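This follows on from our talk about sequence and fold. Please put the record directly below this note.
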Amino acid sequence: MGLMERFSVDTIAPEQRRDCWNDIVAQAFPNVAVDPRDEGFTAHLVRQPLGRLDFAYVNSSPAKVCRLPQGRPQRAEEPYFKIHAQHRGSSVNRQGGREAVLNDGDWTLCDSRSPYSIAFADPNQMLVVKLPQSLLAQRVPDPERFVGVRMGGDRPESRMLLSLLRSLAPQADLPSEPGWTGAVADILLDVLALACQSDVPRKPTPDDTGALAHGALAHWTRQVRGHVDANLRDPCLNSTRIATALGISSRYVQMAFATLGTTATAYILARRLELAAATLQRARDIAGGTISDIAYDVGFNDLSHFSRSFRAHFGVSPRAYRAGRSAA
């Protein structure tokens, strides 16, 4: 294995621990922030690469972890998924409109491309493995299916996976030869693929040519709207991503928006503009946040498109709106 790194905030002054820990976490998991839940916050992180994979063992007192909005476009590392495996304690993992409550031995997958949160009210110990998307897709063709889904530690495949992860938890005396690390990474991915072969409850996928029960469509329309609101800040959000996250067909997503008298593109745009307007109003009250920052924060990646769309929707420019000048 590569060089093992250890980090701790226990020797830092209590009032500085939050900022220090966020700096540490940002190095291991870009675009992630931690909000400690008590003044006596303590945390430890041990990292170690395993070929193209990256292991981490995190031990923390109560906190909430969130993936931040991407912000301004920037050069980023290869998209990756993460295994969140509960070693001790419990946590609530939310992503893509799903919620996975993990206890000892449970695990779930996390997609680095979309917002997510992890909350734990008690001391928490978690094993985290970063898996490049291209590498994972060779073993698990549809990893999005498992994002935000609890994989129970009572299943034989999960026990195998957790046993392997615990045996590989960062430690200084593991071999570092590329052949060894590559072989172990292959074994881990094979065990993960085996664990993902078990049936996970799928959302219903209707026959596109058949009739849909009104109640079912109404239910999934609510789910689609909830997913959009939870992921507005993702600039890649579209009907395909919604369908993948919810486990339904793209046709079903289109029909859900049709019941609202709109399309996915138009609905997402309108909700982003409403969020931008609310943020601009708050920014006016507290004198914070530039218009470009706000645009990127709510999911736009083109400032010209944002300004044109905002004016068409509200009748004034974003700058005038923030200044409190409404359309005539």
Observations:
- Residues 264-286 form the longest helix (23 residues).
- The longest strand covers residues 80-88.
- The radius of gyration is 22 Å.
- The chain has three domains: 5-196, 214-261, 267-322.
